[in-house]
TrEMBL record:
Protein name: Mitochondrial succinate-fumarate transporter 1
Keywords: Membrane, Mitochondrion, Repeat, Transmembrane, Transmembrane helix, Transport
Provenance organism: Spinacia oleracea
Domain of life the protein comes from: Eukaryota
Matching Pfam families: Mito_carr
Family: Belongs to the mitochondrial carrier (TC 2.A.29) family.
Length: 317
């Protein structure tokens, strides 16, 4: 009787290691990113304008949105969509794929399970990599485009994303595309550590869902888990996001710059504008990031869940 029991244990250990492959996670994230970008670009434009508004021209989210639409046209609310959509697609593919690779490397070799510490580290590592490889250069271009005001294209410094990138490289060097890299790394690393861990915990607590169990969450269930998981990050990383935006927006082509780095920017903003200024744009971030995570996970979970159901056949963790 002992030999069949050992065979059963060996079988459980083998199936416990069966997980969704990283490439499937990357594909699901990229598709979710396209849908998210198309839906939420106006909120991102408003957030950027509010964070750059040192003169108090905008009275709030609605006033900012209506001002931009009235003075520059409704299409201005989708300024920077091309780099934003491309950035989100590549970012989510890298984020989801890297997180899956790191989790696979950190899983217990016997049980196939992953500790909370390893889950946090995997998320942080994915956030750092996406910040350096994709997020920083794309957001520099996006923010430079979004801060431009006016209706006449011939009067704008940057004519489009490619022209913007070329101009930055020509005037500031290739490193100009990585302005604000330090706060971006801190923001994204912390965000993803919290988001992946929280998403796993909400899925398990609310829906009894675990990766590889073969069940497919309903889109509304994924949206609730994704929304809740996407809430903590913006509150914790608000100062990093404001500093990132300020550093990315300033051009170095004119010589002197207002902010020389992340720490200097935090000190300067705090001294000149007060502590609350470091969380400027938080409300539009909360209007964009949690709903964005809800949309992305609703799409990604459907693709991942269908893969699990078809190929993993209820393989336990």
């Amino acid at each position: 009787m002992a030999e069949p029991q050992n065979n059963s244990n060996n079988s459980n250990q083998i199936t416990a290691k069966v997980t969704v492959p990283p490439y499937m996670k990357a594909i699901s994230g990229s598709v979710g990113g396209i849908v998210e970008a198309s839906c939420l670009q106006p909120i991102d434009v408003i957030k950027t304008r509010l964070q750059l508004d040192r003169a108090g021209n905008y009275k709030g989210i609605l006033h900012c949105g209506t001002t931009v639409a009235n003075s520059e046209g409704v299409r201005a609310l989708w300024k920077g969509l091309t780099p934003f959509a491309t950035h989100l697609t590549l970012k989510y593919a890298l984020r989801m794929g890297t997180n899956a690779v790191l989790q696979s490397a950190l899983r217990d070799s016997e049980t196939g399970k992953i500790s909370h510490q390893a889950r946090l580290f995997s998320g942080f590592g994915a956030g750092v990599l996406e910040a350096l490889v994709i997020v920083t250069p794309f957001e520099v271009v996006k923010i430079r485009l979004q801060q431009q005001k006016g209706l006449s294209p011939e009067l704008l410094k940057y004519k489009g994303p490619i022209h913007c990138a070329r101009t930055i490289i020509g005037e500031e060097g290739i490193l100009g595309l990585w302005a604000g890299a330090a706060p971006t790394v801190m923001r994204n690393g912390t965000n993803q550590a919290a988001m992946f861990t929280a998403k796993f915990m909400f899925d398990k607590a609310l829906w009894k869902k675990q990766e590889g169990d073969g069940t497919v969450l309903q889109p509304w269930q994924s949206m609730i888990s994704g929304f809740l998981a996407g809430t903590a990050g913006p509150i914790c990383t608000g100062p990093f996001d404001v500093v990132k935006t300020r550093l990315m927006a300033q051009s170095k082509s004119g010589g002197d710059v207002k902010y020389t780095g992340m720490v200097h920017a935090i000190r300067t903003i705090h001294a000149e504008e007060g502590l609350r200024a470091l969380w400027r744009g938080l409300l539009p971030r909360l209007m964009r990031i949690p709903p964005g995570q809800a949309i992305m996970w609703a799409v990604a979970d459907q693709l991942i869940g269908l893969y699990e159901k078809r190929f993993l056949h209820n393989a336990p963790l």
